[in-house]
Structure formats: C-alpha cells, structure tokens
Amino acid sequence: MKVLFSLYEFDQVFYLLFICFSEHGITGPGLPFLTEAHLEKMGVFFAKVMCNAVLQVLNDPIHGHIELHPLLLRFIDTPQFQRLRHIKQLGGTYLVFPGASHNRFEHSVGVGYLAGCLVQALNERQPELLITKQDVLCVQIAGLCHDLGHGPFSHLFDGMFIPKVRPGEKWKHEMASVQMFDHLVRVNGLEEVMERHGLTLPDDLVFIKEQIAGPLDNSVFNSSWPYKGRPMEKSFLYEIVANKRNGIDVDKWDYFARDCYHLGIQNNFDYQRFLKFARVCEVKGKKHICTRDKEVGNLYDMFHTRNCLHRRAYQHKVGNIIETMITEAFVKADPHIQIQGSSGRIFSISSAIDDMEAYTKLTDHIFELILYSSAPELSEARAILHNIVCRRLYKCVGQTTAETHLDVIHMDYGMKEKNPINNVHFYCKKDPTKAIKIRKKQVSKLLPERFAEQLIRVYCKKTDDKSLEAAKKYFVQWCMDRNFTKPQARLGWRYNCSRAHPTQT
User: Fold this and answer.
1) Per-residue pLDDT, 505
2) Which PANTHER family does the UniProt entry name for this protein (predicted)?
3) So what's the pLDDT on residue 311?
4) Enzyme catalytic residues
5) Does residue 399 sit within a domain?
6) Which residue has the higher pLDDT, 243 or 494?
7) Domain span including residue 478
8) d(CA 328, CA 375)
C-alpha cells in the first residue's frame, strides 16, 4: 500500500526529520549508516514494523506453543510483572498438593493468550463487529495484567490477611491490579511504546483498566452504559477477561486447565469448543457473547468443574488450616516487617498496599523472611511457620451445614445461590443472529436444584488427644443445640472440613 503526501505534507515531514537529525548530531555523511535501532532511539519508526509485528513464541504446558505480540513482551519484561513469578497461584494449597507449584506469572500469560484467541475468533467469524487491532491489543493486555495486584499466597492475602489487619477496609486485588498497572506503565515509560503500536492514550488505558476491575467511575455506575473506554456497541469486549454478567471468561478457562493439570484433577471443560461456537448477538440493545444451544451441557460442566476444584483442592481441610496458620503468622509479624517504598518511606506488610513501589517487593518470600529471621520480635510468628514446616498443624474438630453465619465456607457455582447459566444467552443453528435462553429443566432433571451451600468448620490449635476429644464433643453439642446437621466424622476425631478461621479451645 502506497502512502501519498502533498508537497506541503512532504515539506513538513522533511522539516521534522531535519530537526530530529540535527538534535542528535546526524549529518549528511552519516545518513547511509543509520540503522532502525538508531532511528527508534530518535523516535522515528517504520509503519511496516508497527503494522506487521513479529510475534514471540512461548512454550506453555497448557496451551502449547503460544504467540504473543511484542507489546505484550514489553509488559512482561518489567519488575512489576516478573514479581508474579514469586506468588503461588494456589497459595498454601502447594503445601498439600506437591504439583501445585505454578504461579501467577504463567497463569497471567495464559489469560493474555486466551483473551487474544477469543477476540480474534469473534473478529474472524463476524467482521461486521468492526473489531480493530487496537481492540485486540487492549483485550490481550488486560488479560495479561489482570492479576498484577495479587499479594503473597494469592487469595490468602486479600481474603484472610487484609480483613484481619485492616478490618472494614474493602480492599480487593482487582483494584490493586489497576494501581499496579498504572505504576508499571509509568515507571517503565510504556506510554510511548503503546502509542507506537497504534494505541490511543488515555482512552485505551481506561479501557484496559475497566476490563480488569469494572467501571472506574462509581458516579456513572447506574447509568445505561457505565464504561468510558469503549462505547456500548462494543459491550461484548468487556465479557472476555472478567465477565461480570455470567462468569464465563478466559480467566476461568486458564485456571481450570492449569490448576487441574498441576493438581492432578480431571478438567471436564473444553474451552476450545467454546471458541468454535462463540459469536456476538444483541440482547436488549447490548451485544453479548453467546454460544450454540447444544453447548449448554459443556457450560454446566464448566461450573461443575469450578465447584469440584473448591471441594477437592481450594477448600482442602489441611490446605486451609495451613493458610489459617500462615495468616496468623503474618498478622503477628506485620508491625515488625519493614519494606522500603517510594521516596524512601517504610511500610509494613499491611500498609504496603498503599504504595506500589513497596508492594512490588511483597511476594511469597515473606514466609522465608520470617521463618529464618533471628529477630526477637518475630519469635511468635516464626514459631507458627516452623510448626507448618514440621507439620505440627491445627486439627479440624468438625464440619456441619448452617443457615446462619459463623466461620462459614461458601460453596457455589460462581454466582452465590443463583444459577449462572440463567445469565447466558445461546443461539440456534437455524438463526445464529437471535439470542435465546435455555432453562435448567430443558437440559436435564439431574442438574442441581440448589447452586450454593454453606459449611461451618471449627479448628483446634491444641493437638493433644484430650483437648481434641473435648472439642469434638463440645462442637457436636453446639450443632445439636442449633438444629444443625450432625458433624461429619471420618476417622475418630477427624472431620471433613475446609477454610474457616480457627476457634481456640
């Protein structure tokens, strides 16, 4: 494709090049020796390089050989993103499942790749959607950076530690991901690089952050369209990385496949099949990602896989006891740990979330920092972590179902008591442009009637037989007094259990 300039435009371009070369001391004799690298340092780029970027190939154990745009690599090759290599995907679960050593880094790369797969599949199937290269890049970057805000041991940090040390503060890792994304872009000077690859700032920065954490402006949250990065005509783009409507997104696709692979658990959901049938249909004035009617069973398998992972791994009784002990150790160590942040300021573990430079330095290594410390003020925290290493763990007294809240564990299909499939739209082969709904009774009478349950679990810090037996009897009587189901017993005093805060007996 040829680009034609008018004489005036040519003179302007020539003049700008002349000024640029003069500022860098480039004279006539030196022009033949200029390389693309020299020109890039001066801010001069070839259009063909911008349009035909050479993709980098990575070998991933889950998705095979994956291709990533060079702009994504600029994000990956930063201290803020590399930090994710040192945060376990499943936190304390690794101390129960030996294979669960994977981290947030590889998961994030996988989500970035799958985000590109889905948006490109939609573009190829429906060119009338007018998905641009900039849209594709923004969706991929959002997938890549969606977990930048996770703290040590992943969900342990924002789900257990922060609520204890900063009660009442509604801090979530999604907002920390947005803050870390801003920090990453700023300190690594990526604004210019993003513009060089065709992105429009600040609009595309807003779009990327909205995909990670939802609408950024709470004042327009109740409006018909609360997003600013993309218009309502492209509403479907917000359902790729973090689908707030029904939970079907590439984040789940990757962690289902990756977690199952490392845990040794069967994954029953086939995301490749979803990619083949995904298309965009209009529903009440907005465009949503839909799939074929015959794929409803595959989607039920997806949410069932999520539930099974929680039951068998994420809420494993020993794994959650270990995470409870790690949390206690971190709480005791919190005032005594010093992390240097911006402008030389010092932060504790809990206050590091207020400064992204300090937070960049906060990873799973804090466990070993406490464990191998000789500081007297860390003795209590160190003793707890030493007990974990030596497998002297709290014991589970019992578990029962409940209708009221008391150290409750929630098991569901991703939308609490609701059936997430009720928020999914499908299309028929006869008319692929028309979105329809499929009710549970149309699929199978064997599907669950309830999509959520609550469990109460009690842990005992004392591990001698006398204390455990007394705790067991007390818990059984406590359940009977409240008309709860009798606690499940397996071996003597051992009871089936998972995450709950420990109860001292």
Assistant:
1) 32
2) DEOXYNUCLEOSIDE TRIPHOSPHATE TRIPHOSPHOHYDROLASE (PTHR11373), DEOXYNUCLEOSIDE TRIPHOSPHATE TRIPHOSPHOHYDROLASE SAMHD1 (PTHR11373:SF4)
3) 87
4) 173
5) yes
6) 243
7) 395-411+454-505
8) 18
Does some domain include residue 49? Answer: no
Q: Residue 196 carries which DSSP code?
A: H
Instruction: Enumerate residues 6+ apart whose C-beta is below 8 A from 99.
Output: 262, 263, 264
Judgement on whether residues 314 and 401 belong to the same structural domain of the protein: no
Under the banding of pLDDT at 50, 70 and 90, the label for residue 16 is low
Model pTM above 0.85? no
CB 157, CB 173: distance < 8 Å: yes
Neighbours of 491 (CB within 10 A): 6
Token reading at 271: 């995301």
Bridge partners, 86 (sequence order): none
Same domain, 68 and 148: yes
pLDDT band at 434 (very low <50, low <70, confident <90, very high): confident
Does residue 458 sit within a domain? yes
3-state secondary structure of 308: helix
| Shared domain check, 142 and 291 | yes
Indicate the number of domains in the chain.
Answer: 3
Task: Please state, in angstroms and rounded to a whole number, the distance separating the CA atoms of residues 355 and 345.
Answer: 9
Q: Based on the domain organization, do 439 and 483 belong to the same domain?
A: no
Mean pLDDT of the chain: 82
User: Is there a single domain that holds both residue 460 and residue 423?
Assistant: no
> Which of the given ranges, 79-83, 291-295, 500-504, has the highest pLDDT on average?
79-83
Do 77 and 11 share a structural domain? no
* Structure tokens, 489: 């017993």
Q: Residue 301: what pLDDT? A: 83
Instruction: Mean pLDDT check: name the lowest of 88-92, 136-140, 343-347, 489-493.
Output: 489-493
My answer on whether 175 and 196 are in the same domain is yes
| Burial class of residue 173, CB neighbours in 10 A (0-12, 13-18, 19+) | buried
